[in-house]
Amino acid sequence: MIAHDLFVPSPLLVLSSGTMLMLVSIAWRRSITLSLSIGLLTLLLALAGTDHHLTTGQHGVATLFIQDRWADYTTALILLSSICILGLSWRNLLHDTAHPTDEYPLLLLLGTLGATSMVFSANYIPFFLGLEILGISLIGLVAARHHHLTASSEASMKYLILSGISSAILLFGIGLAYAATGSLYFSPPVATDGISHGIPIAAATMILVGIFFKLSAVPFHMWIPDVMEGASTPVAAFIAVVSKIAIFSSLVRYFSAGEMQPFLNDTMTAVIILTILGGNLLALRQTSLTRLMACSSIAHVGYLLMAFLSPGQLQSGAIVVYLAAYTASTLGVFSVISALAANGDTDGTSIADWKGLFFSHPFLAVIMSLMLLSLAGIPPGIGFFAKFEIAAASVERQRDLLLAALVIGSVIGLYYYLNVIRTMMTPDIVQIVTYNRKNYPELTGLALVLTIIVIVGGLFPARLIRPILPAPVTIIPRSANTIAPDIDTAMRYAIHDISP
Amino acid sequence: MSDLLSISALCCHDGAAMHILAILSASITVVGAIMVITRSIAVHAVLYLVVTLLSLASVLSLLGAPFAAALDVIIYAGAIMVLFVFVIMMLNLGQPDSDREKEWLRPRAWFGPAVLAAVLCGELFFGLRDMPDAGPISMITPRDVGLMLFGPYVMMVELVSFLLLAGLVTAFHIGRYRMEDR
């Protein structure tokens, strides 16, 4: 009965088995190399099996997971990013002989599992569980930093509290949505007769607030610079890339049912303008490269949401290209930061430390400049085309206000990205002797691969533009007969029966 | 459990009473939860936590979920709280036992939780007093829940277990560095 009733996406299966295998191997003998290898192998296997699914059981609303090209695409992005991040942290973990750090790859794998679960979810339960698995793994990952224990503990405490609050709001919204519709299907609640009109609106708003919190859209963005600064560089990349892709992908799926309600549309417009301007303005004053990337990731979320709010012919292509561009460029920047990481107390993320990089490490400096230009939206990087697509999608829907915000945000963005490049070009009068930068050849290789992706994607972006967004689904209206018999409806029956 | 059932039957019979009872239980839950996080002595917080969980159970039963309420009482207010108290007693080995017990048995420690618990108890008696003849109730039995958890929701159970694993590893991970840091 289970075999054909259940639909389980295969990446989820592979990731869970890999996690258990890693647990067994840790119990047997603690070896960081072995754990990292198992983690890498699991991620590769999951990537290989992304679009092969063992069972296909999509019967109506009762399914917990859904599988379509959108889920496959975002899963592939998440898995590729996790592989990159594992590669970024490999050296650091091997060098840290003082502590057995098997927890790191374990938590990384669990976080990826949570993100994958969110991407595939067609029901509130796997979505929320995935979100929590991702969040709790991130708390541990943020705190896993030995040279800066106080800073990282502080960051993980901040993340714990703020993510707890946002989860509570989200859960309240889910509860209200269930009260209004009687189903846990992952789509905005629609008002039905007998329920007051306010409940579905309140539910959708609270769920959106929770999602914005995790996405760090502007009224709810305060945590991300602090948390990313406190975390180690690979973990900061994980927060900026994997968790944002997963949540954005869920947001797109959540509203895939059709047009948004007008008031949500207005709210989203306001949030997007605030996010683009706020993220860019915050980034202007940053002196730490990690904080700068955090603020710029806020702004990029704003651009992504802009594409999300402009449904039309071009929307799908814009979202797909922009996600790929953002992922590749951000990972590129973080891999250069890791490749140049210092051993000592400073981790070399202060922008002033990057003075004269064009003279000491010309190759890495060129890669870094390319990535920053791609983020700013300048050719030949893929970022140019991505931003162009977003602007085109917005023009198609005549979002004038949003377009103005995009232009202003891009100009501000250009300033701070170019500022980093200018710093790298300034000859350093005091030679770099204080910062004992080590050169990691394999990280340089990784950065090179990402550069190739960014440039090739920028030259031939047409292959990426495909209609893969989730297809609109019909929402089954609430009635006692059509809802599949599961626990919650059974409870509903119980209430109906005993009420007069 | 049967007492809780009776409350649920009563409330659906009488709308106004249900509202008052539900609001009362919910406010006890909130007050208890606030007290839990503001107490500085762990045992006092635990006492409030017990009351919070009990009132949460009565809210659940008022919502028509007696099975969830029973689980809440048995597992949380029962088993897990016993574990909490046990661990706290194990860890506080500094003072002499008699002093410690005297400290814990002061009225200041148990007066608040006792009042809240008394209100809950009164609610229960009120529910028992005029127990109406409720019609046929289709109960959710443990068997139904088990079939659901091992049937369609089996993957969710797995995900929850991974969530617990993540929490465990994270707590251990952070806690260990704290210990080594000292």
UniProtKB/TrEMBL annotation, chain A:
<comment type="similarity">
    <text>Belongs to the complex I subunit 2 family.</text>
</comment>
<keyword id="KW-0830">Ubiquinone</keyword>
<feature type="transmembrane region" description="Helical">
    <location>
        <begin position="31"/>
        <end position="50"/>
    </location>
</feature>
<keyword id="KW-0812">Transmembrane</keyword>
<keyword id="KW-1278">Translocase</keyword>
<feature type="transmembrane region" description="Helical">
    <location>
        <begin position="127"/>
        <end position="147"/>
    </location>
</feature>
<dbReference type="Pfam" id="PF00361">
    <property type="entry name" value="Proton_antipo_M"/>
</dbReference>
<feature type="transmembrane region" description="Helical">
    <location>
        <begin position="443"/>
        <end position="462"/>
    </location>
</feature>
<feature type="transmembrane region" description="Helical">
    <location>
        <begin position="400"/>
        <end position="418"/>
    </location>
</feature>
<feature type="transmembrane region" description="Helical">
    <location>
        <begin position="159"/>
        <end position="179"/>
    </location>
</feature>
<feature type="transmembrane region" description="Helical">
    <location>
        <begin position="104"/>
        <end position="121"/>
    </location>
</feature>
<keyword id="KW-0520">NAD</keyword>
<feature type="transmembrane region" description="Helical">
    <location>
        <begin position="235"/>
        <end position="255"/>
    </location>
</feature>
<dbReference type="InterPro" id="IPR010096">
    <property type="entry name" value="NADH-Q_OxRdtase_suN/2"/>
</dbReference>
<feature type="transmembrane region" description="Helical">
    <location>
        <begin position="6"/>
        <end position="24"/>
    </location>
</feature>
<feature type="transmembrane region" description="Helical">
    <location>
        <begin position="267"/>
        <end position="284"/>
    </location>
</feature>
<feature type="transmembrane region" description="Helical">
    <location>
        <begin position="362"/>
        <end position="388"/>
    </location>
</feature>
<feature type="transmembrane region" description="Helical">
    <location>
        <begin position="319"/>
        <end position="342"/>
    </location>
</feature>
<protein>
    <recommendedName>
        <fullName>NADH-quinone oxidoreductase subunit N</fullName>
        <ecNumber>7.1.1.-</ecNumber>
    </recommendedName>
</protein>
<keyword id="KW-0472">Membrane</keyword>
<feature type="transmembrane region" description="Helical">
    <location>
        <begin position="70"/>
        <end position="92"/>
    </location>
</feature>
<keyword id="KW-0813">Transport</keyword>
<dbReference type="InterPro" id="IPR001750">
    <property type="entry name" value="ND/Mrp_TM"/>
</dbReference>
<keyword id="KW-0874">Quinone</keyword>
<keyword id="KW-1003">Cell membrane</keyword>
<comment type="subunit">
    <text>NDH-1 is composed of 14 different subunits. Subunits NuoA, H, J, K, L, M, N constitute the membrane sector of the complex.</text>
</comment>
<comment type="function">
    <text>NDH-1 shuttles electrons from NADH, via FMN and iron-sulfur (Fe-S) centers, to quinones in the respiratory chain. The immediate electron acceptor for the enzyme in this species is believed to be ubiquinone. Couples the redox reaction to proton translocation (for every two electrons transferred, four hydrogen ions are translocated across the cytoplasmic membrane), and thus conserves the redox energy in a proton gradient.</text>
</comment>
<feature type="transmembrane region" description="Helical">
    <location>
        <begin position="199"/>
        <end position="223"/>
    </location>
</feature>
<feature type="domain" description="NADH:quinone oxidoreductase/Mrp antiporter transmembrane">
    <location>
        <begin position="122"/>
        <end position="413"/>
    </location>
</feature>
<keyword id="KW-1133">Transmembrane helix</keyword>
